[in-house]
């Protein structure tokens, strides 16, 4: 059944687990996420970005998630709008049937320029007022995603803030977070701790200086009743990176957020963990490998079944590691 984000995250907090929130754009991703959840009895968060709606078309995206709910009626499913850049985008998502929206007021509507605290509070609060009136949950974001590696936040993937960000902008301030939650009444708060979207997060395995799990602990100590959200939380599986490159790809060496660091975050208030890149990499790696090894095949269902299997294995591993397995 379709449920709100608030319902799921309250249950997650009461039972000390976290939920992966997977981005979806197509049938194979939805199938992989649902089949894995069914096998390990996990609740599900599926999220659609503005880019996903542009790719699939709003009716296709909506019906894919509705089809998942119909096929797996015993699994609670949240249909979440990822990174809404404006109140208008959030309203459209609510009209479309989403049970949860993210108002990302950390950036201006161009999705690039860092916003002021006042702007962020105003747009987020207005979305909370409208959404709560119709039973829809709201995720807000305070702080800008970006790399702490070289002391500045230069983005390489075209997502999120552009140019150089200060250390302060890249790490959410615990006192500001408390003020933000009080003023906006968001159901969940995305925080910045040095992660970024896409595959190119860290040029070497992250340390406490580049992935600030300690900041999660400080924020959680300040606002223990707020559900925290980690964005840019793909682990960038090294085995899939190798397979992609072994079968014709050319991805540079790169590292993601280790699963054990996410689990440490979950011990300190993280309840929603956004993952897109890991499924993209598994999908591309499985496709490249299948086509290279089966050059005579031309039925897309053959390689699409392989990509689904590859994504499903990652989904299952995350449900188990984050503790949502068995909680549906
Ligand atoms: O926010 C980032 C997600 O990975 C969605 O990416 O905008 O390319 O769909 P997208
Ligand atoms: P990744 O690119 O690390 O998968 O992050 C996805 C995300 O944060 C979507 O909002
Ligand atoms: Na989101
Ligand atoms: Zn994100």
Automatic annotation (TrEMBL):
The keyword Secreted does not apply. Transmembrane segments: none annotated. Pfam families: F_bP_aldolase. CDD domains: TBP_aldolase_IIB. Keywords: Glycolysis, Lyase, Metal-binding, Zinc. Zn(2+) 1 binds at residues 83, 197, 231. The keyword Zinc applies. Its EC number is 4.1.2.13. One of its GO terms (biological process) is glycolytic process. The active site is at residue 82. Its cofactor is Zn(2+). Binds 2 Zn(2+) ions per subunit. One is catalytic and the other provides a structural contribution. Dihydroxyacetone phosphate binds at residues 198, 232-234, 274-277. Pathway: Carbohydrate degradation; glycolysis; D-glyceraldehyde 3-phosphate and glycerone phosphate from D-glucose: step 4/4. It comes from the Bacteria. It catalyses: beta-D-fructose 1,6-bisphosphate = D-glyceraldehyde 3-phosphate + dihydroxyacetone phosphate. GO terms for molecular function: fructose-bisphosphate aldolase activity; zinc ion binding. Zn(2+) 2 binds at residues 104, 141. Catalyzes the aldol condensation of dihydroxyacetone phosphate (DHAP or glycerone-phosphate) with glyceraldehyde 3-phosphate (G3P) to form fructose 1,6-bisphosphate (FBP) in gluconeogenesis and the reverse reaction in glycolysis. NCBIfam families: cbbA (TIGR00167), FruBisAldo_II_B (TIGR01521). Belongs to the class II fructose-bisphosphate aldolase family. This is Fructose-1,6-bisphosphate aldolase.
């Amino acid at each position: 059944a379709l449920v709100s984000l608030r319902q799921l995250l309250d249950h997650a907090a009461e039972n000390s687990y976290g939920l992966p929130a997977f981005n979806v754009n197509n049938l194979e991703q939805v199938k992989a996420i649902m089949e894995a959840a069914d096998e390990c009895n996990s609740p599900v968060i599926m999220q659609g970005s503005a880019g996903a709606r542009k790719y699939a078309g709003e009716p296709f995206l909506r019906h894919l998630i509705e089809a998942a709910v119909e096929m797996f009626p015993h699994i609670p499913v949240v249909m979440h709008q990822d990174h809404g850049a404006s109140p208008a985008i959030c309203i459209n998502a609510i009209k479309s049937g989403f049970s949860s929206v993210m108002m990302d007021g950390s950036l201006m509507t161009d999705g690039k320029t860092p916003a002021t605290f006042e702007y962020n509070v105003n747009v987020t609060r207005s979305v909370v007022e409208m959404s709560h009136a119709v039973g829809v949950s709201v995720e807000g974001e305070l702080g800008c995603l970006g790399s702490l590696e070289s002391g500045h936040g230069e983005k390489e993937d075209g997502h999120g803030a552009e140019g150089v960000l200060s250390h302060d902008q890249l790490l959410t301030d615990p006192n500001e977070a408390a003020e933000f939650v009080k003023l906006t009444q968001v159901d969940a708060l995305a925080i910045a701790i040095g992660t970024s979207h896409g595959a190119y997060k860290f040029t070497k395995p992250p340390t406490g200086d580049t992935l600030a799990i300690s900041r999660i602990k400080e924020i959680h100590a300040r606002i223990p009743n707020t559900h925290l959200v980690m964005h840019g939380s793909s682990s960038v599986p090294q085995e899939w990176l190798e397979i992609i490159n072994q079968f014709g790809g050319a991805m540079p060496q790169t590292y993601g957020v280790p699963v054990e660091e996410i689990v440490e975050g979950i011990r300190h208030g993280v309840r929603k963990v956004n993952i897109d890149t890991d499924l993209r990499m598994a999908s591309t790696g499985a496709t490249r490998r299948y086509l290279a090894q089966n050059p005579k095949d031309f039925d897309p269902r053959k390689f699409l079944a392989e990509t689904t299997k590859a994504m499903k294995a990652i989904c299952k591993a995350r449900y188990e590691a984050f503790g949502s397995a068995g909680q549906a």
